[in-house]
Amino acid sequence: MSNTERFISKRVAAVPPSGIRKFFDIAAQNPKVISLSIGEPDFVTPKPFIDAAKASLDRGETAYTSNSGTLALRNAISRKISALYDVTYDPDTEIFATVGVSEGMNAVANAMCDFGDEVIVPQPCFVAYTAAVQFAGGVAVTVPTSGINGFQIDGETIERYITVRTKAILIGYPNNPTGGVNSMENMLSIARVAEKHDLIVWSDEVYDRLIYGSAKHVCFASLPGMRERTIMFGGFSKDYAMTGWRLGYVCGPKTLVDAAKKVHQYIIMSAPTMSQAAGVAALEQGEPFVASMVAEYDRRRTLLVRELNNMSLDCFEPRGAFYAFPNVSKSGMNGDAFANALLAEEEVALVPGGAFGDCGRDHVRIAYAQSYEKIEIALERMWKFMRRHG
Ligand SMILES: Cc1ncc(COP(=O)(O)O)c(C=O)c1O
After folding, report:
1. Which of these three, 252, 285, 318, is where a domain ends?
2. How far apart are CA 106 and CA 94, in angstroms?
């Protein structure tokens, strides 16, 4: 142990490094590797959004904005949520712009968690959920879900994990890494439990527009009685192909938004100014771009899920986001062994499902945010692999 390690807080030392990064880094070093490991759109940000940022820079808008973000952006966010989900947020007091959902979640976790406070986190889930709670001094109480019902979660299951220390329930649908979408019935049962036990629901809706087939996104705050109990995290990274712009938002009741904004104000000041200009353009002009990206993701999803099932990698139909989460048990390996062997033997990078929670250990996450042609080549290589190992 180096003699500086003892200075690291127990809180931070206890959080393991992200299990995604390792595969991403190996893939990045070898140009022959096809990487379906990273949850990032392969599309370049649509031009009108880029132009809006350039115009903002050309106007000399290079200073901080209000801590909450520009009013133009907050108005556009408020209009979007009202038009799509019929929930009204006051742009002055109930919305603030963040450096992605990532920062928003950390601000909220810091604003709400005292040491030892518990947040219920169904898994498999985005790797940063548990870390955000732990960094804030809280305890992430993880709840396993299963592929049998598409990794959905209901209120009755969550209720079994509630204690006197529970403050919040953190859900993320459409889900990373499974692509699962929680049914309206399940969402309503979570709402009932939140009400019964006086809890806040943190709802990460960063993939709200990436929905396929007949599936519908349930905006948690739109459920009866839930607007006052929900912190909604929304973003631009996925729906609008804007990961590098680092922009997102938090919406919720004023008291909670004020507290989270206090953290944001001291840590961030304001989200990047030019990105906010791009964000307004995305919300105002983005529809055709979202529609065409969704259509292309859907084409890839159809190919991927069909072929995975054909090669005995059992995959339930993902209905949102851009991930498939097949069970790889029929290869005789768990997700970790499968991902390592596939990378070594066929130069295809995926992420072991265990990186998103122990209950995902027999799965791998495959991101179809990669061109159709590359997915086809990756599938050919996987067929070869499965002929040897299936
Ligand atoms: C479920 C989920 N939430 C949040 C994020 C982070 O989003 P942002 O880029 O807005 O910080 C990701 C990124 O992969 C994600 O998958």
Report:
1. 285
2. 17
- Ligand 1 centre distance from Cα of residue 242 (Å): 11
Among 376, 364, 378, which Cα is nearest to 23's?
364
- Within-domain flag for 54: no
Does 77 lie in the same domain as 28?
no
What pLDDT sits at residue 2?
Answer: 66
Task: Write down the pTM of the prediction.
Answer: 0.96
Share of the chain above pLDDT 90, in %: 94
Convert the pLDDT of each residue in 291-348 to its tens digit.
999 999 999 999 999 999 999 999 999 999 999 999 999 999 999 999 999 999 999 9
**How high is the pLDDT of residue 23?**
76
Q: Work out whether strand 348-349 and strand 230-235 pair parallel, antiparallel, or are unpaired.
A: unpaired
Q: Which of 242, 269, 285 is the last residue of a domain?
A: 285
The answer to whether the CB of 129 is under 6 A from ligand 1 is: no
The structure tokens listed for 388 are 């040897």
Determine the Cα–Cα distance for residues 260 and 240; give it in Å rounded to an integer: 25
| pLDDT tens-digit map of 241-278 | 999 999 999 999 999 999 999 999 999 999 999 999 99
Specify if 265 maps to a domain. yes
Residues 349, 251 share a domain: no
- Give me ligand 1 centre to Cα 129, in Å: 10
Largest CA distance in the chain: 60
Residues 102, 204 share a domain: yes
> Residue 1: is its pLDDT beyond 70?
no
Domain of residue 179: give its range.
64-285
For the residues of 203-215, what is the DSSP string, one character each?
Answer: EE-TTTT-B-TT-
Q: From the alpha carbon of 207, which atom of ligand 1 is closest?
A: 1
Output the domain CATH number for residue 127. Answer: 3.40.640.10
